[in-house]
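anyone seen this seq b4? input:
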Amino acid sequence: MLKRIILRLGFLSLLLIVICACNAASTSQKPTPTDKQNDKLRKQIEQIASEAKGRVGVAAEVLETGESVSLNPHDHFPMQSVYKLPIAMAVLAQVDTGKLNLEQKERVDKSDFVRLGQASPVRDRYPNGVELTLSELLRFTVSESDGTTSDVLLDLVGVEVVSKYLNELGINEIIVADSEKEIGKDRETQYRNWASPQAAVQLLRSLHERRGLSEQSQQLLFKHMTETPTSARRLKGLLPKTVVVAHKTGTGGSNDGVAPATNDIGLITLPDGRHLAIAVFVSDARTDLVTRERTIARIAKAIYDHFTQK
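predicted toks r here
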């Protein structure tokens, strides 16, 4: 009799444990208010992205809290001039180790110029070539998105060094393979220099946290990225004028009505001092530049509003 009672009590205890576990699992599966808000934001991003009539990838993360939202975060998108940021970071890492010096001078010859149609203020200002310091080359590359100076920097360190730098940061979904001049010869080459939106956010986090860079190098890049006049209608387009945005854009010319790349990635300082890393890539779009840039601006504004109104 006593044995039966013990067995029954044991069975009841086990049953209670199973019921409690099921209830806990059921509770954990219920969407939280945050989940619902993020789902609403993601649907809003999808709706905005559809207007570009192309492939759109988005990743955004508040670096201090890890809150995030994304759309096609691991898809591959041609970077165009966005790839000048990892090149510049790899160059500055060499400066930090003493292998290069910001004051060293490099000759930019006519043979270095990218073709007409590709952005190059140095080619336009100095048609016979010029000698520039490494610091000046970096400013032209990052702030003015100069294809010629970007190639000079890439030649200076080599593709392998840039790839090694990215690997050391643990970033596997950014590939720097070809120069601007090579892209100018064959439009399909631009698809070889690709990034995923999530990897672009990883890169921005590394820059923010000074992983692989000194404070001096980080601040120099922030200065160039904040002061850049390029494509102000993208990430910055609909944000309050007082918001600080350090960003790098990338654009590919249209071919038969299809634009291969209209991009912007950057760090947005929120009103409370937190930092929003965001990457928006628009690829193979069948719309005009105004529409593509407005798509990026509206996505950035939706994400900014979401994380500032919480």
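DSSP finds eleven helices and ten strands in the chain. Residues 14-19, 24-28 have pLDDT under 50 and may be disordered. kinda curious what u guys think
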